[in-house]
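User: Once you have settled down, look closely at the record that follows, taking as long as you need, and be ready to discuss the fold:
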Amino acid sequence: MRPPSSLSTLLFVAVIGVGLGLAYAMHGVAPDWLSCTVGGLALLLAAILSSALKVAAQWEKAVVLRVGRFQGLRGPGLFFIVPVVDSIVYWIDTRVITMSFKAEKTLTKDTVPVDVDAVLFWKVVDPQKASLDVADFQTAIGWACQTALRDVIGKTMLADLLEGRDKISEQLQTIIDVRTEPWGITVISVEVKDVLIPPALENAMSMQAQAERERQARVILGDSERQVAEKFGEASKTYANNPVAFHLRAMNMLYEGLKQNSTIVIVPSSAVESMQLGGLAGLTALTMGIGQEDRAGKNGQPRVSMTPAVDELPSGSNGDAAVMEL
């Protein structure tokens, strides 16, 4: 039951105060029964006025019945009703209302049990229909939401349910709006909050996703190797037609390897001849030049030396080798 408003209470107290004050003033001047009658009439008048005066908030509509029949909607603000004859059966909130609902252990189209939580945003646009055409419109909306959610889940695959939440929300909004429109209620939006699947299926899906990522990584790596091989093929054609460029590239590669600290480089004599580096003497001169640069630029760096290491080659090797230690 709605509590009386502060304005009604104030009016009741004011009328009672005036009536009691008038009865007290009449005491000793008029008969006692007259003063008691004035006090009783003041009490009755205060009760009638306080029950007739009603105040509705800005977002409220009062549904008034007169002798059991619909009389009209009152509010917002101050209004009066006829006591005893009129009655207010509903105070309808016309603001946007949120309602959460869920479907537990509902099977999808591919027979996977899921728990789905959703939120409904709705509003009463016709208070007369909401109060007269359905017994309890809030309970009716809750059941309509749950049945609609179960219906949509049963017609949807698990993958579509996980990936297409916006589409599921649109379907739910359409179904619920059709069901609640005759009750004077409009659905503003429906949002799917969460979709819970069994833990075993969640682990299997995680393993599947990981395997798919590994497969994509291997495909990308293979494609990269193919592109690198194609570029090396193009470079080999360029070096074949330009021996000077090939020689400079070989010198640069050897230089980059030798200038690193604490590095051992083993170069077979066959590779030296193919790169046209001038044999062992040319390598020795190159390493000595790098050593001189290191001593001139950075004092205290390790020295550069070069010795043949034929004895250290594996058995069966026909070529010489040079070991350069920085």
In short: Confidence is low (pLDDT under 50) at residues 300-326.
